[in-house]
C-alpha cells in the first residue's frame, strides 16, 4: 500500500501580525491601477496575500479592490499560523479563501499572477531575504509579479520592490502628503534588500538624496499644493537621468517608481 505523502512544512516564521484596515491602500491602488493589466490578461486570475497577519483585513480589502479589475479574480490569503487561518475562515466567500503556508505557496500547482507580501520580509536577516525572493519568483505565472513591501502602521509611508521571474524590476515609494518633511523620511520603510543600504556609496542612498534635493528645490511651487510640488520633484529627478517608470498620473498621488538597477545594492 503506497505511503501517504506528508504535507510540506510551511517555509518561514510567524510575523508579529499587526495590521490595520486600509493600511495597504497605496500598494492596492497601484495593483488595481498601472498593474491591473496583469490580472486582466492572466489565464488564471489568482492573487496571493502572503503573510496577511493576525487579522485578514488586508486580504479582504485586496479582494474587494481587485474585483473591480476583474470580477472572477481569486484572492488566497496565506498565513503560517494555523490559528490565524482559522480566525479568517468566517470571512471566506466565493473568490476569497485562506490557507496555511509560507513562502512555498501551497497552491496545488497553480501559479499566481500576483503575490503581495507586506511587512513580512523585514523581520528576516539580510542574508535570508534573497532565498525567499527566489522561492516565490519560481512559482509565479508567466508575466506574474511578486511585490515585497513595507509600510508604517497606518499606511502613510510605504515602499515596495517588484520582482518578476527574472528578478527585481523596480522600487516604488508612496507617501501621504503631510506625513513627511522630506522624501527620505521613508528610509526606515525600505524593503529588507535596501534598508541597510541607505549609506554613502550605495545607489539607493543617492536616489533618496536626489529626491530630497529636488523636493527642496521645488519649494517655489508649494503654494500650489503638495501634489504639485511632488510632481515638480519627480519631473526634476527624471530630467536628471533617474530612470523613473511612471509619470504625472502616479506622481500626483505621492507615488514614484524607479528602475531597480538604479537603486540595487552595490
- Fraction of residues in H or I helices: 25-40%
CATH topology title: Rossmann fold
| Number of distinct beta strands | 8
CATH uppermost class: Alpha Beta
Please report the distance between the alpha carbons of the first and last residues: 55 Å
Mean pLDDT: 94
The class by helix and strand makeup works out as alpha/beta
Low-confidence stretches: 1-6
How would you describe the oligomerization state of the chains in this entry?
single chain
Order of helices and strands: HHEHEHEEHEEEHHHHE
Spatial shape: globular
Backbone CA Rg: 19 Å
Description:
By secondary structure, the chain is of the alpha/beta class. The chain has one domain: Vaccinia Virus protein VP39 (Rossmann fold). Helix content is 28%, strand content 19%. It has an eight-stranded mixed sheet with strand order 3-2-1-4-5-6-7-8, sandwiched between helices. Mean pLDDT is 94; it is low at 1-6.
Summary, kept brief:
The protein is of the alpha/beta class and 266 residues long. The chain has nine helices and eight strands. α1 packs parallel to α3.
Throw out a few tags for this protein.
266 residues, alpha/beta, Rossmann fold, 8-stranded mixed sheet, globular
Break the fold down into its secondary structure elements and pairings.
Layout: H1 25-31, H2 36-40, E1 46-50, H3 57-66, E2 74-79, H4 82-88, E3 96-100, E4 114-118, H5 129-137, E5 145-151, E6 157-164, E7 167-175, H6 192-195, H7 203-217, H8 226-239, H9 248-251, E8 255-259
Parallel strand pairs: 1-2, 1-4, 2-3, 4-5
Antiparallel strand pairs: 5-6, 6-7, 7-8
Helix pairs in contact: 1-3, 7-8
Amino acid at each position: 500500500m503506497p505511503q501517504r505523502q506528508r504535507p510540506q512544512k510551511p517555509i518561514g516564521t510567524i510575523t508579529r501580525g499587526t495590521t490595520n484596515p486600509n493600511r495597504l491602500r497605496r500598494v492596492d491602488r497601484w495593483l488595481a491601477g498601472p498593474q491591473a493589466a496583469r490580472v486582466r490578461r492572466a489565464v488564471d486570475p489568482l492573487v496571493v496575500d502572503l503573510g496577511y497577519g493576525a487579522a485578514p483585513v488586508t486580504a479582504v480589502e485586496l479582494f474587494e479592490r481587485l474585483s473591480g479589475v476583474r470580477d472572477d479574480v481569486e484572492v488566497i490569503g496565506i498565513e503560517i499560523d494555523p490559528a490565524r487561518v482559522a480566525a479568517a475562515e468566517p470571512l471566506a466567500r466565493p473568490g476569497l479563501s485562506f490557507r496555511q503556508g509560507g513562502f512555498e505557496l501551497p497552491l496545488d500547482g497553480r501559479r499566481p499572477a500576483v503575490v503581495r507580501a507586506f511587512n513580512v520580509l523585514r523581520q528576516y536577516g539580510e542574508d535570508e531575504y534573497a532565498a525567499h525572493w527566489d522561492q516565490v519568483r519560481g512559482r509565479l505565472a508567466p508575466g506574474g509579479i511578486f511585490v515585497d513591501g513595507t509600510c508604517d502602521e497606518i499606511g502613510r509611508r510605504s515602499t515596495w520592490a517588484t520582482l518578476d521571474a527574472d528578478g527585481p524590476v523596480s522600487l516604488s515609494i508612496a507617501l501621504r502628503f503631510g506625513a513627511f518633511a522630506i522624501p527620505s523620511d521613508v528610509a526606515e520603510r525600505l524593503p529588507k534588500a535596501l534598508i541597510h543600504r541607505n549609506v554613502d556609496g550605495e545607489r539607493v542612498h543617492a536616489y533618496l538624496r536626489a529626491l530630497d534635493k529636488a523636493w527642496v528645490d521645488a519649494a517655489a511651487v508649494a503654494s500650489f499644493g503638495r501634489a504639485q510640488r511632488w510632481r515638480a520633484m519627480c519631473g526634476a529627478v527624471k530630467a536628471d537621468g533617474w530612470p523613473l517608470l511612471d509619470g504625472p498620473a502616479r506622481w500626483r498621488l505621492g507615488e514614484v517608481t524607479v528602475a531597480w538597477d538604479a537603486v540595487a545594492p552595490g
